[in-house]
Amino acid sequence: MTSETKNTLNRRTLLGVAGGIVAAPLLGGCATPAFADQGTPQHQPAAASGRRKLGSLEVSSVGLGVQNMSRTYHTTIPSRPEMHNIIRTAFDRGVTFYDAAEAYGPWEVERILGEGVKPFRDKIVIATKFGWNIDQQSGRRLPGLNSRPEHIRQVVDNMLKRLQTDRIDLLYQHRVDPQVPIEDVAGAIKDLLTQGKVLHWGLCEMGLNTLRRAHAELPVTAVQNEYSMLWRGPEKAVLPVCEELGIGFVPWSPLGVGFLTGAIDEQTRFAPGDIRGNETRFSPENLPHNLALVVLLKQWAERKQARPAQVALAWLMEQKPWIVPIPGTTQMAHMLENIGASAVRFTPAEAAELNRAVRAIEVRGARLPAAVQAFSDVEAPRKSGRSPS
After folding, report:
1. How far apart are the C-alpha atoms of 189 and 208, rounded to whole Å?
2. What is the pTM of this model?
3. Pairing state of beta strands 51-54 and 57-60?
4. Are 277 and 346 in contact (CB under 8 A)?
5. What is the spatial distance between Cα 383 and Cα 29, in angstroms, rounded to a whole number?
6. Which residues are catalytic?
7. Which of 60 and 49 is assigned the larger pLDDT?
8. pLDDT higher than threshold 80 for residue 14
9. Would you say residue 30 has pLDDT above 70?
10. Per the omega criterion (within 30 degrees of 0), is the bond before 106 cis?
11. Are 358 and 185 in contact (CB under 8 A)?
12. By the 8 A CB rule, do 294 and 8 touch?
């Protein structure tokens, strides 16, 4: 069996993993330790080389999303010691940016992250998110969203305990609450900044007017939206607004929920509960057409002596110097492969060529089920007494 075949098979073990546990309702194993055996070129360093700025916040050029470390898309439970091992190995290889959320678990992912980073907490950036309506006593998910200021304050106090820290470096509103003015949310965050419990803040999947209003009230450090070769929606308006306002951008699902790794082919069918089974971009009608992106990635991977996932991540970083992807995984080999993407470089001519090729492929199907997409691009209500800006 070739290393290429072994790597493909290993990637396919992730097909059940999808933010299914959180992505579907909320949106919202042993790893193989031998990196070289996973088909990654020997000259490609397994390290997150370089640093980038999200506003004034400096982080590693590639971060680590820990969403599935309590429960994968397949709904399997990863080995907790191995998740700690992945988190700590990532730090040893230069990763300083770790992304979690209250909703992941709920709560359990923050606990895993807090345990994992405890030996080097002061040398990294922890990002987490509030905003879903989660009962703070039981952890039970209640309907809808909750960004009431009193709830935010309670959530943050509980986050600090789970993360075993005294401050959150970057706190996002996970989704915009259509019942709470963003000015009230910003006011609550401002109080938390004054108390030193939060250092920076951001928004996820928000409406653009809400982003502008939030930034005017309290400067926003970063926006987190889905963005990859498979979903280029932010290019139309979100990225230009971020550039205009000096806000960093963090793509979630930068590998297209595993699609851009080459793990999915025309024969793939998804496990019950896997959100990708309800996304029309992966339907039997659309999947064969969309696989043109994977063919393109494999061609460029061969050309750059890299892996398809590394090319996909490097392409994202090529778009803007203030874009920091946060690929998530529960497998050591994949984490090492992903952070090696920062070593992939494109000449200006290569970048232009690849951009043309990517944009020539029109992805068919919707990125999310309608019930989940409804939580994106939401505008917060106006604060009473304020006129539109």
Report:
1. 19
2. 0.88
3. antiparallel
4. no
5. 49
6. 104
7. 60
8. no
9. no
10. yes
11. no
12. no
Q: Show the domains of the chain with their CATH numbers.
A: 3-373 (3.20.20.100)
Cβ(71)–Cβ(90) below 8 Å: no
Length of the chain: 389
The pLDDT of residue 44 is 44
The answer to whether 240 and 272 have CB atoms below 8 angstroms apart is: no
Query: Which amino acid is present at 205?
Result: E
Separation of first and last alpha carbons in the chain: 62
φ/ψ (deg, to 5) at 110: -60, -40
- Nearest-5° Cα angle at 137, 69 to 26: 45
Mean pLDDT of the chain: 88
DSSP string, 257-313: TTGGGT---TT--PPTT-GGGG-GGGSTTTHHHHTHHHHHHHHHHHHHTS-HHHHHH
Local structure of residue 23 (DSSP, 8 states): I
Are 41 and 297 in contact by the 8 Å Cβ rule? The answer is no
Which has the closest alpha carbon to 131: 146, 153, 142?
146
Rg (CA), the chain: 20
pLDDT digits (tens, 9 = 90+) for 125-180: 999 999 999 999 999 999 999 999 999 999 999 999 999 999 999 999 999 999 99
